[in-house]
Structure formats: structure tokens, C-alpha cells
Amino acid sequence: MKKQRSTETFNPFDFLSEEIVFTILDLLSPNPFDKKSFSIVCKDIYAIEAKHRRNLKPLRSEHLSSVLKRYPFVNHLDLSLCPRVTDNSLNVIANACKSTLRGIDLSRSKCFSGNGLLRLAINCKNLVELDLSNATELKDREAAAVAQAKNLERLWLGRCKLITDLGIGCIAVGCRKLRLISLKWCVSVSDLGVNLIAIKCKEIHTLDLSYLPITEKCLPSILKLQYLEDLVLEGCFGIDEDSLGILKHGCKTLKKLDISSCQNITHVGLSSLTSGSRFLQQLTLAHGSPVTLALTDSLSKLSMLQSIILDGCQVTSAGLKAIGNWCLSLRELSLSKCFGVTDEGLSSIVSKQKDLRRLDITCCRKITGVSIANITNSCTGLTSLEWSRVPWFTGKHLS
User: Measured between alpha carbons, how far is 366 from 280 in angstroms, rounded to an integer?
Assistant: First the structure.
């Protein structure tokens, strides 16, 4: 009697464990289309890929319910491609993700209110990252809802122009674990709100206060932050020479400082600053005072300085030469759109900075092939060179 052929279909993935498939998916992570193609090989792989997915960037908020049902282990949700996110959308996320959700990006989303944020904060107890940038309609009521996310560590509120010191105070009291907060362009926040953040949130590592109407009154509280490493004061026009004098006695942990577009700061204020921040590694002075010999002499105390951003500044050959002499550990130098960069000044830097990795000379129209020859001969470890809009310079000069 003939043996009947088995009707069962042979599936080679039956012999693979989920861990092996997870490893394969990890290697496909850089290209989402590869991962999608892999997931439709068979039903088993389709199901395993759903368990593996941790980051999700949907295109339409109305499909959130079905998408989150398909991917139950998502811990980071990027809704920046969904302009219309309502309170109902946030309720769906809160009910579906619950404690698994750790980060959500609402930086380009609108139409939600404090009710949706409150539900999200209460249901998603492990939420540590929240981006509300560009939510220009949010007010203190919404900020109070955010304050219910007790485990929040990273918060972006850029351009939330209607949130005042009251709302920031609620966040400061409720979110004591904050390590990063960006208040860029929150123009209704003053010294009071910044002081509350500095006093209540002791674990702050990164603080962005760009374009806030603050003065030196909030600086003493900021300098008492024991873990502060990155401070951004871009466009803070209330910070002047006297203000930087306060920094002379504090913030030994500071590694990055941005005081770009602060027109009231000269070499005098910078000298006070550098005497109190000797461990500084990155300094941004873009669109500020002219880079003269007096200003660059202030950098001589910064022995650990690795990055200097001077975009849009007026520079002198003497100033550039001083940078080359004092900053011996430089890894990055940006001179984009700087007026006054010549072959003499640039060559004096690159001849000394053998370990330079990144150099930006965009729109430096006075330099010639002499500078390029010095760059290629001296900076052998260079990995990034930005040179667009240098009229005579083409790729053949690098050959």
C-alpha cells in the first residue's frame, strides 16, 4: 500500500528560536524597509517581528489602535509625522502601551490638551522622555498635567510660548528626576521659573535656556546643580559681563557651554567664565563679539577644550593664531560664515592642530589653495570638512 504524503507544509523557521530571529532583526535595524521585507516571509516571522519592535513612527494617528495592537511591546513612539493628535489618540496610547511606553515625540503634533496629557502621564508610569516642542497652544494647565509624569527624565518644551513660571513650577515640583529640560523660546518663563527648576530638579545634566528673558538672578541657582554638564544660554540678551562674573566661582562639572548671539559678552566676561569652568570641552561663541587676541587669550585656561564654534563671528588672524597656540587638544573647529578668515590665520591653526577631526570653513571666501594644502598636509586625521560656497574650491583640490 502506498504511503500517503504529508499535507503539512515544511517551515524552516520552526527550528529557529525567537532569540535568533531577534538577532537577525537587530542587524536589519538601520533600514526599516529590510525589516518589513523580512517580516512578511511567513506568519511566524511576522509574529516574532511584532514582538521585537520597540520604536514606532506611524504616518496617521487614526490607525494607532490597530498599529499598537500589532506591536504590543513598543517603548518609544514618534508621532512627529502625525500633525493631528487628539486627546482620544493619547487615550488610545495610554490604554494600549501603559507601563511599556518610555518615550513619546509630539513635537509636530497638535489638537491635544491637558486631558490627554494627564491620561498619558497617569497610565504610562515608566515614561521618561516627552517632546512637546512647537506645541504653541499649550498653557500652564497642560504643564500641570505633564507634572504628573513623576519618572520623567527628558523634557522638551521648545516654543511653548504660553507656559509661564507657574506651569514650570508645577513641572519642577512634580518631575524631580529630570536630567534634561529644554525651555528654548519659552518667552513667558523668567528667572523665577528657572530658579524653581534649578532648586527642585537636582539631577539636571542638560539645561537649554535659549532666548529666555532671564538675567543674572537665576545663575547662582544654576551653578549649584551638582551634575550640570551642558548649559545653553543662546540669545539670552539679559546675560552680560556682570552676569558672567558670577560664573567665576562655580560649576566645576560644566563640559559644554553655548553663549552664542549674546552681544553683550566681550573678552572681559569670557575671562571670568573660563576661570571658573576649567573642565569645559565645548564652547560656542557663534554670532557674538569679534574674535580678537584679547578674547582668545581667555581660552588659555581651558586646557581640556576640544570644540570651538565661532560661526558668523568677525575674526582676526591674531585671534586664530592664539587659538592654535592655546587650544592644543582641539578636535572640532567651526568658522562657518566668519568674516576675516585668511590663509595666514587658518594655516596658523591647522599647522598646530594635528588631531583636528572636524573643520567647517563654509563661506570663508578669502582663503585659497594655500589653506587647503596646509589642511591636507597637517590634519591627517580629519574626518569631516565643510567647505561649501568657497568660490574657487572644487573636489580636485583634495586629490
Answer: 31
pLDDT in tens, 269-285: 777 766 667 788 999 99
Per-residue pLDDT of 80-131, as tens digits, reads 999 899 999 999 999 999 999 999 999 999 899 999 999 999 999 999 999 9
What is the grid cell recorded at 20?
Answer: 535568533
Distance between CA 87 and CA 357 in Å, rounded? 47
Q: How far apart are CA 326 and CA 333, in angstroms?
A: 14
Output the CA–CA distances (angstroms, integers) from residue 212 to 58, 69, 378, in the order listed: 33, 42, 42
The residue to which cell 518589513 is assigned? 36
How many other C-beta atoms can be found within 10 angstroms of the C-beta atom of residue 113? 16
Beta strands in the chain (DSSP E): 55-56, 76-78, 103-105, 129-131, 154-156, 180-182, 206-208, 230-232, 256-258, 282-284, 307-309, 332-334, 358-360, 384-386
Q: Which residues, other chains included, contact 5 with Cβ-Cβ below 8 Å and sequence gap of 6+?
A: none
Q: Label each residue of 366-389 as H, E or C.
A: CCCHHHHHHHHHHCCCCCEEECCC
**Structure confidence by residue, pLDDT tens digits, 2-32:** 444 444 454 555 545 666 666 766 677 666 6
Helices of type H across 180-238: 191-200, 219-223
Q: Which grid coordinates belong to 98?
A: 501603559
Q: Which residues contact 384 (CB under 8 A, 6 or more apart)?
A: 357, 358, 359
Whether 241 contacts 215, CB under 8 Å: no
- Which residues partner with 386 through β-bridges? 360
List the one residue out of 217, 148, 370, 188 whose CA is nearest residue 198: 217
Strand partners, 282: 256, 307
